[in-house]
Amino acid sequence: MRPFFEWCDQTAVGEAIRDSRFIFPIAESIHLLALTVLLGSVVVLSLRLLGGGLRSQSIPDVARTLAPLTLGGLLTMLGTGALLFCSEAMKCYENPPFWFKMEALGLAILFHYTFVRSTTRSEEAAASRVRTAVAAVGSLLLWFGVGAGGRAIGFY
Predict the structure, then answer these.
(1) Rounded distance, CA 142 to CA 149, Å?
(2) Which runs of E-coded beta strand occur in 3-148?
(3) What is the pLDDT of residues 84-124, one digit of tens each?
(4) pTM of the model
(5) How confident is the model over 19-43, as pLDDT tens digits?
(6) Which residues of 32-61 are buried (b: 16+ CB within 10 A; e: fewer)?
(7) DSSP one-letter code for 135
(8) How far apart are the first and last CA of the chain?
């Protein structure tokens, strides 16, 4: 793994970001905005799954409406995250919160696009209170874990 991190750290993109006063803070601001959009859509969907809001709309309708925001936030977060990573790859290599964030991110994406999606696609699956509670709570824990891990990177 270390050679990959060294390569990323030495790319022209990584060097350009490190040499600029403005690129890193702009990329980080966009990254955090994308995370906010993603988390906002996850919170709204999770509240609906738990029966805490938007009761006049079906779970599949809420999920369908929020899907573009979730995907857009995720893709933007991944793109800007790659830029930020390249600028400090070797710092990340030895940073336990970075590894926690990456594990939480992988699990959150997998959980969202398998279990949550299958739960929210049909009224039958969405009718199971246990299943919707697991989808909502699991999703919230994983995505907020991503955010907390990312925040902790700078303190290690």
Answers:
(1) 10
(2) none
(3) 999 999 999 999 999 999 999 999 999 999 999 999 988 88
(4) 0.91
(5) 999 999 999 999 999 999 999 999 9
(6) eebbebbbebbbbbbebbeeeeeeeeebee
(7) H
(8) 20
Predicted local confidence at residue 97, as pLDDT: 96
Residue 156: which of 84, 101, 83 has the closest Cα?
A: 101
The tokens describing 30, both together, are: 């966009």
At 80, list the tokens. 């800007």
Provide the phi-psi class of 55: left if phi over 0, else alpha when psi is between -120 and 50, else beta. alpha
Structure-block tokens of residue 37: 């959009």
| Interior/surface letters 113-138, b for 16+ CB within 10 angstroms, e for the rest | eebbeebbeeeebbeeeebbebbbeb
pLDDT (0 to 100) of residue 153: 92
**Domain boundaries, given as residue ranges, for the chain:** 2-153
Please state, in angstroms and rounded to a whole number, the distance separating the CA atoms of residues 36 and 70. Answer: 10
Which has the closest alpha carbon to 77: 148, 27, 20, 12?
27
